[in-house]
Amino acid sequence: MASLFLGFVGPWQIILIVALVLLLFGGRKIPELMRGLGGGIKEFKDAVKEDDKEESPEKKS
After folding, report:
1. How far apart, in whole angstroms, are the C-alpha atoms of residue 35 and residue 44?
2. How many structural domains compose the chain?
3. Which residues cross the membrane (predicted)?
């Protein structure tokens, strides 16, 4: 899916998006936002793994 999206976005559009993000959030806020995003993704993956572990005994029965 990501490769499909990138097929329609050229390098100038990516540069423009990065510039807008820098203008909106500033250079100091971006690393903090990325840490928060990474933590959220990690929590989501852990929750999915935990959910799979709970379902696996039910499937064996």
Report:
1. 14
2. 1
3. 6-25
Per-residue confidence (pLDDT) for residue 10, from 0 to 100: 84
pTM: 0.51
Among all chains, which residue has been given the structure tokens 């329609």?
A: 8
Return the number of other C-beta atoms located less than 10 Å from residue 30's C-beta: 14
Query: Of the ranges 7-11, 32-36, 37-41, which one carries the lowest mean pLDDT score?
Result: 7-11
Expressed as residue numbers, the domain containing 43 is 2-60
Contact 22, 30 (CB under 8 A): yes
Angstrom distance (rounded) from CA 35 to CA 28: 12
What is the DSSP code (8-state) at residue 61? -
